[in-house]
What does this fold into?
Amino acid sequence: MDTATTQQIGSVLLQSNGVARTPTQTRRNWSSLFQSSTSHSSDVALKQFDLQIVEGVAQVPMDIIHKGFSDWREYVVGFFLEHRLPYKVVKEFLKKKWRTKSKFEMVSDADLYYFKFHNEEDRCLVLEAGPVFIGGRCFIVIEWSPEIEN
It folds into this structure.
């Protein structure tokens, strides 16, 4: 028999199972996160497509793959030849080293750093400059290609 108890702390109800909620909290569908409360429409639309599974693997339609390739072609990829350095160290060093005219976006995964430049001239200069040394480690910078993900 479940003997869950609820304790109120301010306006939050804390249940003995560790779940916290406000008294007026209602359940919402995940799609409500994408609905705008403003009157103007967004230029982004979600598109549903029929899912096809072949041998247990979902097949992505080719038009979506090609769209992804064209979007990613704008990115520059960086990686260390040896052990990687922390995100913040790399970002701060490259901001000072590259001294770009516009800001650039940087994200990373376990192996690669991805850069999106808001200025094409900055992107070209970074690629032309080539590798840099950060903390004594060689950091290679190249254009994104589908092969880099392997």
